[in-house]
Specification:
heterodimer; A: mainly alpha; MetI-like fold; globular; B: 2 domains; 5-stranded antiparallel beta sheet
């Protein structure tokens, strides 16, 4: 009685507080989230715990008893832990050196360190797999150097675990590096100075003050890398490494409806990543200490003796170069006409690029990806704008819940959403096994929605609300005000966000691999995967296609950074 | 207790010359204030003392020891930061004990000193709290306790009261002064608040654009400033332009827009005909009630405005169109007459060098 009374009271209050158009937009957004995000998760949950009308946890038990699945679970943990610790072990010292010391050619280092971001690790994995082949270029190099016996070279691919680890570490390094830099930048320098004036210095200062204050940021970076590594599908797939949960999920997509252990597995992954994500977020909020502006001209960089500075530069450059190596391997592969039993290709060609446009699989995939990405970017712009406007301007009830919904895809791995779509929308008009176009567009859009919303937040927070009020005061309607006053102010952010959404959709891996069943609907990434397993010229064409994607992504990153300026960082933080 | 001496400190930050040759002596146990408007280089100078910045020229001595290029952790100069810089991941106790642990003191000694420091700042019982659970005033005390616990040779305070509300700030002033006296540690305090400096300092250095303008006790600086800048920075002042017309050993006569003023001779050399500034504090202006009495420097003034402030009335009057600010301390029933007689006692009039004239003389 009182509950329904307070609810009607609350609703009536909302009607006074918010405009009908804002309320209906708000309701529409919730409907979209309900259908596209909550329903698939609920569907999997039901599939996992309800069997023949009864509640059961048998499938989770089965999951842990099945030796293959338990092994995969252990494998994923091992892989993610190894990759995460190695990534952080590299990223922390590099970030510290880059932020705190004056180094030669710092600008160059900063660019080189970020390059690996532009390629999905599985594209480089394809190229690296070839490098590591028994009679491949690496062994040829080692033979030439006399390190390795030419009659019996080591078979590197027998250790797929370490291959995956290396590729993941190198690929995740830029993300971890950026987060470590942010964690360091957030530390109020006067805290370290206080410790110094109390007599601390060197490693003691780092251990007692700097590191503990970096911890929330480091944990955030670590958990992000952990989730990405844990749910990475592309790289293990390329190395034919089945002892990870993502690959097991992938192989169960076909029987999604018959085998509920698939749902149980996906849910386990989801719960794990959501818990990790929220823990790190809560922790990061704990020590939010405002950083104080530095006196002009004080950079806070320590000056090192020149030889030491160059030594440090060389060390960082070496790591950065190693991180780019897989990308270089992709380029070499794409242009290699003949590359057999030699260190470098002995004949070069652009044939594979020409073939991309002729060959039906690749030509269709490029066309498909352009269409999907364009559509999903448009959808993202519309959704992002609407959500950001309602949340930032406080135009609708419960803004923090809407924000939480929009950020949810950050915490839910791609394989979870994709797998849920296959199950939840089977035998509906959206069934991906019939025609995945709509679901691919939606999946891409949902995955990149958090970044888009953040870009819009940044824009709206910059845009002056007073101008909007002035426009309303002069008699313009809210809609006219939005179009004429608000929109022009946030346009750069909107375009930047849109470009990013477009570019990342072009190289989205897990959704593409899981949702596209029929070759006619393959996007670029699934075509790359299909090509990589062909013998004649497959790897080369896959590499050529990968370069195409990398170019699009790299160019988009540069373009959006130009548009967003320094606020770009806000989009990518954990 | 340790005297500290700096000689001719020059410091560039980027392309700005922030300190243009600073020479100062801090006596052992002295409470010394650096006072100046923002951007005058006072914080930079404090950071040079702390060792966070090394000067391009000049030397810093702690006692007989030169510390110019000694890193901060080897100086034993504890600093209280403007925003306190308490370690958010450590409890109050751990914050205060930090410097003692770094110095590897025995456990019981640490316990003793932390307890002492917290008792001195009246924060007993707060040991287990974390900085974010404390109010601004409490955080400020923890920062102070942390600095004094290490028994520093030099205590540096960077606008420590600027983040407190007005009432608390006034309370902390007297408390800090008492604490400093009790500890007897040589203390350098940076502030832009002249009231703070006047109320607490043993001596003050007024800084302007990277230079020390004047050093002295609060009364010296307030009553006998040596430049117009110091005069106006330390408090309200009437400043008029004048020209010296007669020089005597006891008295100097200055021609001002409203007449001849007889002043106490200045402590800088002047010549007849030289342009000077004449300064008098509003509270030194005397309201002459008895018209029959013949006092020097007495003028008829027209009252323009009188604002009641409670403890006094601020009066703005005009002597032949020249504005004069005065404070009247006795409650005046029924307001002021339209005209009053104001007197400027020769001893309260201060002559200040006219910068333009000075440059011409050079």
């Amino acid at each position: 009685m009182t509950l329904s009374f307070s609810l009607t009271k609350r609703l009536r209050q909302w009607r006074y507080e918010f405009s009908p158009s804002a309320l209906s937009l708000w309701a529409t957004l919730w409907l979209i989230f309900a259908v596209l995000l909550l329903y698939p998760i609920a569907f999997m949950l039901k599939g996992a715990v309800v069997y023949e009308g009864r509640f059961t946890l048998d499938f989770f038990a089965l999951l842990l008893r099945d030796p293959q699945l338990a092994d995969a679970l252990k494998g994923s943990f091992g892989l993610a832990l190894t990759s995460t610790s190695l990534t952080l072990a590299l990223a922390i010292p590099i970030a510290y050196a880059m932020v705190r010391y004056r180094l030669p050619l710092k600008g160059v280092l900063n660019v080189v360190l970020l390059v690996p971001m532009i390629s999905p690790p599985f594209v480089s994995a394809i190229a690296v797999r070839k490098l590591l082949a028994r009679f491949g270029p690496i062994n040829q190099l080692l033979i030439a150097l006399g390190v390795v016996d030419p009659t019996n070279p080591p078979s590197w691919l027998d250790y797929p675990f370490w291959g995956i680890v290396i590729l993941q570490v190198l690929h995740f390094l830029p993300i971890a590096y950026l987060n470590c830099v942010a964690a360091l930048a957030r530390i109020d320098r006067s805290l370290e100075e206080a410790a110094q004036s109390l007599g601390a210095h060197g490693f003691r200062l780092f251990r007692t003050v700097t590191l503990p204050l970096m911890m929330p940021g480091l944990f955030a970076a670590g958990s992000l890398v952990f989730i990405l590594a844990f749910t990475d599908l592309g790289t293990p797939l390329v190395f034919n490494y089945t002892r990870v949960i993502a690959v097991q999920v992938f192989h169960r997509v076909e029987q999604a409806l018959e085998d509920p252990t698939g749902y149980a597995m996906v849910l386990l992954v989801m719960v794990l990543s959501v818990v990790i994500f929220w823990t790190s977020k809560r922790w990061a909020e704990r020590w939010q200490v405002q950083t104080m502006p530095r006196a002009a001209g004080e950079t806070g960089e320590c000056i090192l003796p020149l030889p030491l500075a160059w030594l440090l530069f060389a060390a960082i450059f070496l790591v950065a170069f190693l991180a780019i190596l897989p990308n270089i391997a992709v380029v070499l592969n794409a242009f290699a006409d003949r590359w057999f039993m030699t260190i470098l290709p002995d004949r070069w060609t652009t044939r594979y690029f020409e073939q991309l446009l002729v060959y039906s699989l690749t030509a269709t995939a490029i066309r498909n990806s352009l269409l999907y990405s364009l559509a999903s970017a448009t959808l993202d712009i519309l959704l992002g704008l609407a959500i950001a406007y309602l949340v930032v301007r406080g135009k609708a009830p419960l803004p923090q819940w809407l924000d939480g919904m929009a950020m949810l895809p950050l915490a839910i791995p791609g394989i979870v959403v994709a797998f849920g779509y296959v199950g939840a929308f089977a035998n509906t008009p959206l069934d991906p096994r019939q025609n995945p176009v709509l679901l691919l567009i939606i999946a891409y859009a949902i995955r990149r929605l958090p970044y888009m919303v953040r870009a819009c937040y940044a824009g709206l927070q910059q845009a002056s609300e007073i101008l909007e009020e002035a426009s309303l005061n002069l008699g313009a309607s809210p809609f006219r005000t939005f179009v004429k006053i608000t929109l022009p102010q946030i346009l750069p952010h909107l375009i930047a966000g849109g470009i990013m959404a477009f570019a990342f959709a072009m190289l989205e891996v897990s959704d593409s691999l899981i949702l596209a069943f029929d070759q006619r609907y393959f996007p670029i990434t699934k075509a790359i995967y299909a090509l990589a397993n062909r013998l004649e010229g497959g790897v080369q064409m896959a590499s050529a296609m990968g370069i195409l994607g990398m170019l699009v992504l790299g160019f988009s990153l540069v373009l959006s950074t130009r548009l967003m300026g320094r606020r770009m960082g806000e989009v990518f933080k954990v | 207790m340790m005297p500290v001496r700096v000689e001719n400190i020059v410091k560039w930050l980027g392309k700005t010359l922030v300190l243009r040759g600073i020479t100062l002596d801090f006596r052992a146990g002295e409470f010394f204030f650096l006072l100046g408007p923002s951007g005058c280089g006072k914080t930079t100078f404090l950071r040079v003392l702390a060792g966070f910045l090394f000067p391009e020229e000049g030397r810093v001595f702690f006692g007989e020891r030169e510390v110019t290029f000694l890193p901060p952790h080897k100086r034993n100069a504890a600093m209280v930061f403007q925003h306190y810089a308490l370690f958010p991941h450590m409890s109050v106790w751990d914050n205060v004990a930090y410097g003692l642990k770094v110095r590897k003191l025995p456990r019981h000694e640490i316990e003793l000193r932390v307890r002492d420091a917290l008792r001195l700042v009246r924060l007993k019982g707060f040991e287990r709290r974390f900085p974010l659970q404390l109010s601004g005033g409490q955080q400020q005390r923890v920062a102070l306790a942390r600095a004094i616990a290490v028994h520093p040779d030099l205590l540096l305070l960077d606008e420590p009261l600027s983040n407190l509300d007005a009432k608390l700030r006034a309370e902390m002033r007297s408390e800090l002064k008492e604490l400093q006296r009790k500890l007897g540690v040589t203390t350098v305090y940076v502030t832009h608040d002249q009231k703070e400096a006047l109320a607490m300092a043993d001596r003050i250095a007024v800084m302007r654009e990277g230079r020390v303008e004047q050093v002295g006790t609060p009364t010296e600086l307030y009553r006998r400033p040596r430049s117009r800048f110091v005069a106006e920075f330390l408090g309200d002042a009437n400043v008029w332009e004048g020209r010296i017309v007669a020089l005597h050993s006891e008295q100097v006569s200055v021609e001002t827009p409203f007449g001849i003023l007889h002043c106490h001779p200045p402590d800088f050399p002047v010549r007849e005909g030289e342009r000077v500034w004449v300064m008098i504090r509003p509270e030194a202006v005397v309201f002459v009630s008895d018209g029959s009495q013949q006092l020097p420097n007495t003028f008829v003034a027209r009252i323009e405005r009188a604002v009641y402030l409670g403890e006094a009335t601020e009066v703005v009057a005009r002597v032949r169109d020249i504005k004069v600010k005065a404070l009247h301390f006795r409650a005046q029933d029924g307001g002021f007459a339209h005209e009053v007689r104001l007197q400027f006692a020769p001893n309260d009039l201060v002559l200040l060098p006219h910068e333009e004239a000075a440059t011409v003389a050079v």
